[in-house]
Amino acid sequence: MCVHSTRLxxxxxxxxxxxxxxxxxLLHDLFLAALTAVTAETRLPAALPQPPKGRTVxxxxxxAAAAMAKTVEDxxxxxxTGLVVTRYDHDLPTGRIEVVQxxxxxxxAAGQDAARRIVDLVQGLTADDLxxxxxxxxxxxLLALPAPGITLEDKRTVAKALLxxxxxxxxxxxxxxxxxxxxxxxxxxxxxxxxxxxxxxxxVPGDDPSVIASGPTVPxxxxxxxxxxxxxxxxxTPPPAVAAFxxxxxxxxxxxxxxxxxGAVTTTIATPQDxxxxxxxxxRDRGYTPVILGDAIxxxxxxxxxxxxxxARQVARHGQPAPVPAVILSGGETTVTVxxxxxxxxxxxxxxxxxxxxxxxxxxxxxxxxTDGIDGTEDNAGAVLRPDTLKRAEALGLDxxxxxxxxxxxxFFKALGDxxxxxxxxxxxxxxxxxxxxxx
Length: 440
Known about the structure:
Layout: H1 2-15, H2 22-36, H3 40-43, E1 56-61, H4 65-75, E2 81-87, E3 97-102, H5 109-121, E4 130-136, H6 139-142, H7 152-165, H8 169-177, H9 186-191, E5 195-201, H10 224-233, H11 240-248, E6 265-270, H12 272-285, E7 289-297, H13 301-318, E8 326-332, H14 346-358, E9 364-370, E10 382-385, H15 389-395, H16 400-405, H17 409-416, E11 419-420, E12 431-437
Parallel strand pairs: 1-2, 1-4, 2-3, 4-5, 5-6, 7-8
Antiparallel strand pairs: 8-12, 9-10, 9-12, 10-11
Helix pairs in contact: 1-2, 2-12, 8-10, 13-14, 14-17
């Protein structure tokens, strides 16, 4: 089911392209290989624990939550109940595990209600019971239960400010954990003494379980002081209730060594590296030398693009660090400090900056996608860059540098017909970037 949905999404993406070439087909085949390698159906069954003596309660949150819940239902040998929350339009039909949809990246009332219901599900369990927690990227916004004294609107205000600030995912989730009633290990503490087994799909650089979806079932090494420092670093003035709550620091998140989390087991079942290695294997089969630059690349999207452009030029000109034909691959999560009024996520920002840096270099084409199928808050997964992108833009009167200055990668690639729309993939291991270098 999950693999089929992924293939359908990529086939739909191909249909959105206005120009069909073998090189374009390779870009999308690499993306499909990467996605298929990190679906729930591919990765989750082997990680399932043994059924308990008592009840099995399934909970979860994230963009992959529905696919993970469906896979659990398909492979679990005994009775179970539960509830997971996923992003709008990311659901799948399930039988025993309820799937609730909510807003991402800014939380809404549906996410708050789902979080309350999940808290109710893990109350009053015994040591004979199992809580199976399915966590993936996006879970932090979707599992939206504010700490006492803070309103949902307070959390929304802070979330919006952080998204525009250029803060990285670790910084954003540190703040989120300290404004939440369930994140930063609090959910696992509520489930004690039941056994808690968490299966994670990582969307964060470094695959730190305490950062993925703000770590609702793992100890939190950060503090209220860290959260205050992050807001100060980015010049964010929070609502008065948030400022007062962070300053009081009255109820810290569970820390490493907390006895309530001592028996919790956490397994990361899919990572950005898994996706990159699958794409590299396909590139090798197609006669290209793959170069994986890293699975945890961070920084401003446009600056990361400049570095990628320099490496691509070195391959094309000198055959270093790989001979032509070659494929450059990278993952991680870049950031965009929004200064303009345009539309677009970090992947189209990366590609637009890459286009400017490459300046129509022959033989080099690229694509960048968010593996969940949604680049930022738009309807595209990403876009495709070709050697003639700037020439076609100029013919339409489009100034690439002006669009970049306005953070308007979406409008630029839409005008060219080069956006790639997949719809939700129901997995999420963050960004997937690929540059194909052929003989000029």
